[in-house]
Design a protein that fits this description.
439 residues; Rossmann fold; 2 domains; 47% helix
Length: 439
């Protein structure tokens, strides 16, 4: 099928209602991708069998905190560009280009086969779901064995929870893996506004596209672990890790993003990406020593922070600790891989009592910490009577807290800032014991 000609005739440089685009998935990826594609002016049909979930989505009710997402969904539903369906067969029959965007790959093969069977014409299936290396090629083989036709494209997308809308609309690059030039041209048309803005498009094979995602996560983990190890050295030689990371980041060979010391790396897909990459290496008879070391450093960081708290507070046993922030990063309610959650668990295991506050992540933390933490409605309630205040997530609003009031509420004016978020000079001048990372 000549998708290129079809794109030129139906799209004409911008996607129109003539070509129906589908997104399968109602989790994090499916919700973000369907909303953002519709915001391009594209008619988008989002499909998932959970009817109650889709009813909520159509009302802009999403089960996670993502800046501006609810407003984008409501706007596009109101304009008729974004619609929802639980009927997979009807969805497959209507949509010519389908983004497979579930958060996990367990049902990827069965889903693709079902769509190919129900499709009126061979569809383009773009795999956004994080999948192990070799998944797309294996899917093509399964389609061939079943005498079904579909064009498979591997299209990893890179979203940071809390910034997903910006990441979709201003990506660093677009990755397209596959062997069909026609399908690549169609996808370039869908992302026409980004391509015209100069966003690089990397066209490669399936395996490279799949590996790019996992290698990117692994490199990021390595970068974060490296700066945290250097921060540990800084504390021993009277150096300042904040100034050091700034200087390193200004080196064009290194770049500044994710080069700040803290209590570790987290994220929605981080651990699964690294697990998959390590398993792939093991299966192929090689060992990724740098990745293994980076993960080891990352896992040990929370223990090091607890040791630091114990040192300054003369043990954490029977001490009340105020923990500000539970999400793995600001502007999200995701606690996936949260260093703050790891920190809370280790403190509790060492006999501490935790009073915690987070602007949006308390419901998620309740399920993870199983009633072992007292949750507070304000940061001031969390710090009242505390033997130490620990900044676990870098929410910008924590900088604007009334620290004169906090000093009166704390039993001891000790602040452990695992994100180097606060103004250390000002707090020390106010009489706080301020302890950062690598400072």
């Amino acid at each position: 099928m000549d998708y290129c000609a079809k794109a030129e005739s139906e799209l004409g440089g911008a996607v129109t209602g003539a070509m129906q685009i589908g997104v399968y998935g109602a989790g994090y990826l499916g919700t973000v991708v369907s909303a953002c594609l519709a915001d391009f002016g594209t008619p988008v049909l989002c499909c998932h069998p959970d009817s109650s979930r889709l009813v909520e989505m159509a009302q802009g009710i999403v089960p996670f905190h993502e800046k501006n997402l609810s407003e984008v969904i409501k706007r596009n539903v109101r304009c008729g560009r974004l619609s929802y369906s639980t009927d997979v067969e009807s969805f497959a029959h209507k949509a010519q280009i389908i983004f497979l965007a579930e958060d996990t790959p367990q049902h990827l093969t069965d889903l693709a086969l079902g769509i190919a069977r129900a499709a009126a014409k061979p569809p383009i299936l773009s795999i956004v779901t994080p999948a192990p290396v070799g998944s797309a090629s294996a899917l093509e083989q399964r389609l061939k064995q079943a005498s079904l036709r579909a064009t498979i494209v591997s299209q990893p997308m890179f979203f940071t929870p809390g910034c997903a809308m910006e990441d979709f609309n201003w990506p660093d690059r677009i990755i397209l893996g596959g062997s069909s030039n026609d399908a690549v041209l169609v996808l370039k048309q869908i992302f026409h506004s980004l391509v015209m803005r100069g966003v690089p498009v990397i066209v490669t094979n399936h395996e490279t596209a799949e590996l790019i995602r996992q290698a990117g996560t692994a490199f990021l983990a390595t970068k974060i672990s490296f700066i945290n190890e250097i921060a540990n050295l800084c504390e021993r030689v009277n150096a300042d890790a904040v100034s050091l990371s700034l200087a390193l980041g200004l080196d064009k060979r290194i770049a500044p993003r994710c080069l700040q010391p803290g209590a570790g790396m987290g994220g929605l897909f981080a651990e699964s990406d690294m697990d998959s990459l390590a398993e792939l290496a093991r299966q192929k008879g090689t060992i990724l020593k740098v990745l293994g070391a980076a993960r080891e450093v990352n896992q040990a960081l929370a223990d090091q922070v607890v040791d630091k708290i114990s040192r300054y507070a003369q043990s954490v046993e029977n001490k009340q600790v105020a923990l500000l922030g539970l999400a793995f990063k600001p502007n999200t309610n995701s606690i996936a891989g949260s260093s703050s959650i790891r920190l809370a668990k280790i403190l509790i295991a060492n006999g501490a009592r935790i009073r915690a506050y987070d602007p949006v992540a308390i419901p998620e933390a309740r399920g993870e910490l199983n009633g072992t933490v007292d949750y507070c409605e304000t940061p001031y309630a969390a710090v009242e009577g505390g033997d130490a205040l620990v900044v676990g997530t870098g929410w910008p609003e924590f900088r604007a807290l009334d620290f004169a009031r906090i000093k009166k509420l704390l039993r001891r004016p000790l602040i452990i800032d695992t994100k180097n978020l606060l103004d250390s000079g000002r707090l020390r001048a106010m009489g706080f014991e301020y302890v950062g990372i690598g400072r």
